[in-house]
Amino acid sequence: MTRKKGSFIVIFAVLFFNCKNNTNGDSEKTVKLLPQDTLTRMVVTLDNLPLRIAPGTDQTMVKELEQGTELETTGNISPLKTSQLIRGVQREEPWVEVKATDGAKGWIFGGAVKVEGAQNTPVASVLRKERLSSFFGSEKTRQILQYRTDFYSVENPRDLENVFIRGTILRDSLVQTMENRIEILDHDNLPDLSWIEDAMPGFSLGMVAEGTRYYLFQDYGKMSVWSKETTGHEDDAFFEFITFINNGQDLEGFYSLWFEQAWDYGGYSLLGEGKHLLVLTRMEKLMEVQQLFRNPILKLKMKLLQDVLNSPTGLYGSSAEKIIEEIDAILAADFKILSKAERNSLALRKKQFSDPAKFGLKLNLKPTSI
User: Is the pLDDT confidence value at 340 over 50?
Assistant: First the structure.
C-alpha cells in the first residue's frame, strides 16, 4: 500500500536577533507575525508561569498560569530569547504570544509550554528548531530535522531501511548529549522532553539507570505500523524479526531473547536452550529472500556471536552438555550467514565448555523450577 503524504505546512523562516534574557530596548517590541491559518495549541508545563504584557522576564505580569493550562497562539513569536534552567534542563527559547481560554492575552516563555495537537504549524516548527538548536547544536539539529522529514516521507522499504539505520546512529549521539545536559533534580517533577520524542519519530523516550538518565528507545511498534504502509514487504519481515528477537516487545530492550536479565545491570546467557540456533535459522532465511536491512541483521548476528564467543560476564544458565549440544547443532546447520572464521571460533569455544573453570566460565546459573 502506498501512503500519499499530505503536504506539510511550510516552515516559515523567522529572523531572531541574538539577544538573551531581559534586554529591554526595542527588541521585545519587534515580533514576527506568522500565518494564522493553523494556530498552535499549547499546554503549560510549570506551575505559576507568568503571562506578561510583552516579551521578557522584566515585563509586567498579566497573571500566573497553572500547570496544565491550555493556550492558543496568536501566530506571533518574539526575536527575544531568554535562557532559563527548568527542572534540570537549560532552555534558551523565544517568547510566544498566546491567548488563554478566559480571554487573557500576553506573552510566555517558550520553554515552559509543550505543543499539543498539530506538530507542523508555523509556530510549532519554529519552536522545534529553536529548542533543538539550543540543546543539541546547529549541526545535530540539521540532522534531526532531516531525519524527521525523511521519516514522514517514507514510501518504500528502502526508504525505511535508510531512516532506520540513520536514526540508530543519530540516536546514539543524542543520548550522549542528553546524559551530559540533563540533571534529574526531582522525580516527581520531571522536565518536559516531549519535543525530543516529537523530533525523532520511530523512537520513544524513557528512563534508565534506575531513573537517573534519559534514553531514546527504538519503537519497533511504530516502525512496524509505518512499514505496513509502504509499497513492499521486506521492511515488514525485518520488523517482525527484530520484534521476535526483542522478546516480542515493541519497545527496544537492552537484552535480546538469548540473554536472561537476572538483576538490574546484567544476567546470564541462555546458550544451551536452543534460542541462538533458532535466531540464526530465522536470520538465514531472511537473508536468503531479501536484500534490504542486511546491515542491521548482520549487526544482530555479531551481537549473538558475542554472547557465545566472548560473553562479557562469562555466565551461562545451562549445563556444559546442553551448551555443547547447541553449538554442535549450529555447526551442523552450516549456516551461510556464518563465515569460516566464525565457525572455527565456535568450534574452539565449544572445547572451552568442556573445562569451564579453566576458562573462567560459570554454568548452571538458571534456577531450577520447583
Answer: yes
